[in-house]
Prior knowledge:
The complex is a heterodimer of chains A (196) and B (544).
Chain A: H1 8-18, H2 24-32, H3 50-63, H4 72-75, H5 77-86, H6 93-111, H7 120-132, H8 138-142, H9 154-171, H10 183-188
Helix pairs in contact in A: 1-2, 5-9, 6-7, 6-9, 7-9
Chain B: E1 5-10, H1 16-25, E2 30-33, E3 70-73, E4 81-82, H2 113-117, H3 132-147, H4 174-185, H5 231-236, E5 241-244, E6 248-254, E7 260-266, E8 272-282, H6 286-295, E9 320-327, E10 343-344, E11 355-359, H7 365-368, H8 380-390, E12 394-401, E13 410-418, E14 424-429, H9 434-453, E15 458-461, E16 501-503, H10 518-537
Parallel strand pairs in B: 1-2, 1-8, 2-5, 3-14, 8-16
Antiparallel strand pairs in B: 3-4, 6-7, 7-8, 9-12, 9-15, 10-11, 11-12, 13-14
Amino acid sequence: MKLIRRDFFRRLLVRMAALGLLGKSGNLYFLAHAQENVGELAEGCKFLNVSQARTLEAIADQVIPSDDFPGGKEAGVLYFIDNALAGWRGQDRWDYVAGLEGVDESSQIMFGSKFSDLDSDHQIKVLEALERGEARGEIWRRFQISEGRDGGSSSQRFFNLVIRHAMEGYYSHPKYGGNKDSKSWTMIGYVGAPRQ
Amino acid sequence: MANKVDVVIVGAGGAGGIVGKELAEAGMSVVQLDKGRWFTVSDAVHDELSSDRNVPRSITKLEGLAENPRSFRRDENSPTQVAPIGWNAFGVGGGTMWYGAAAWRFHEEHFRMRSTYGRPEGTTLEDWPLTYDDLEPHYEKAEYELGVAGLAGADPFGPPRKKPYPVPPLPTNPQGELFATAARKLGLHPFPPPFAILTENYQGRAGCIRCPFCIGFVCEVNAKSSTAVTVIPTAQAADNYTLKTKCVVDRVVTDDHGHVIGVSYFDEHGLHNFQAAHIVVVSANAGESARLLLNSRSRLWPNGLANSSDQVGRNLMTHIGANSYGIFDFDIPHEWGPGPSMAVNDFAEGTLGGGHIYNFYVHHPIRFARRRPPGAPRWGKAHKEFQRKYFRRFMHMNADVADMPAEFNRVEIDLDLRDGWGIPALRITRRFLPIDIEHSKFVSARQREILEAAGAIEIWSAPAGGGGYLGQHQCGTCRMGEDPKTSVLNRYCQTHDVDNLFVIDTSCFVSFPGHNPSLTAQAIAYWSSDYIRREWSSGALRRV
């Protein structure tokens, strides 16, 4: 495992910005340092740390649950989104950093544990609260999810962003990492490019 | 000046490409500038996520979007925001490299909407200063030089034509069969719609292989009859024609008498250059052409070049769409491209605000994940089950619906927003009128009837009146007309104010029927080029 950064001051700034204590300058700070994250890099990831990856993977598995076909977790949606954040969706990094922390905070408030430690029914209740924009927590109140997103409150906007990316990963070409072995395409009977 | 050419053309897109070829063919020296680059079959990455047009904010951005910001507001009282991503394409061939290639002729009545239906309150609806008959030979030339597939006589509402289409229509697919049966049941008149897509070998290009990645994608076999694979290469064969890519024009330059003498532009190295010319043709699309005129202010043209009418940028139209969806309890495989296979024109004329209805392009899984009836879950177990059950049991009806011109719908210069070259950007002000919404709802109700007759078990329509961001179908911003006080261009796309300045693209449209604009803009490009050729040989446009 690779250590990204152990910088108390940086952690403090990220934390403060996540809580909105730096106001607009917090977002600017994020933008200026969009190359780096804090904490231990999750296995197989390029951007998300262990805790963020655990939360995102659990969300992905509720957004697309497993049945006789893979769920979001097994299909690799985490790696698809992480790869996107490390590259072509770099502008969403700080929405994820704050948003995933917001999901864990809401989970703590509602059911006393981090999201990934909740049972399935409780996880669904947390996500439904996000979807309705009713999830509680300092982070949602303080942090501005980027403008131009769909939805009203920060939690709603973040949830819409995650659904969008989860679906993009799960149903896209396997080369992007979120649709392992094209299982989702098999499931729906999508032939992609029949000539190939 | 040593390098002065006969004509400089700004933009090598769907219309500009034709002008370049026509004028070069007439022996005029032509320099054509385009801000994009060449795209080729090697750019044809064919998966859903690679298309920004199909999956907005996706993995591949249309090149140039980041450097070309625009701002948007619904109306004068709404906040201005950076516009959501549009679909305007940058590159040789312009939108015709990526478009769905629908190749409609407008109908006879579409050129005289005001005298047929009157002018609805709050609109600037007007007749065109030209007729269908004026354009008919040029439609024909466009169809034959570019290569358009279709079936003459199959559409009882279609305008008169003298010749058949140069290549036969695309074969009917399962959605088309279902659509046709349902439409006939309702007494409608289905027919295979025309496409600028080859269906067999024609002029050295091969026919469509019916891959499912058409709209929003570069064609992998060059069967899509983009100007980049048809007229522009023809023009390039001439010694008197030069195409310069990655050149961004910031200004049309005028002399002390108010005539244009050329354009200034940034080349691909960022160097600022001047291209002198006897004639300037602006073919940059209805957003960018108006922007260039407005940015070319001078002492003699304080409100923007050729804008004594104050009409430059106004009367923006973008089509209000109509979209309805149906799911079925039987399979309707929809995997052979491009996908639209049947259309009806029963509601496209004989009404103020109609449009043609057709089954949409091949659908792909990511977009389908957002196609849900109102209230259906957007995630979780039920969402996955819907995806699984109905992906192959789904039909999307689309229509372009006429929208009305109005003065407040416009593009202007946003002095607070600049592009990657420091040139002031566009501010779009765009809202649909209540009458547009009514027309869209009328057409979507007809779509639902067809879906019902086809046996759909659940049917829903998208809400009317979203969008309008100037990504595609934008037009009307330099309208044609007989009166210089109320229009920018004459019937040949020549500005009323400056005789050696032309705007040749969809900017000239006076009204906008419910059909895709490309082929009409292209017919007008042939028509206007003819005029320039005539005027040039008579010596009228030559200046010392």
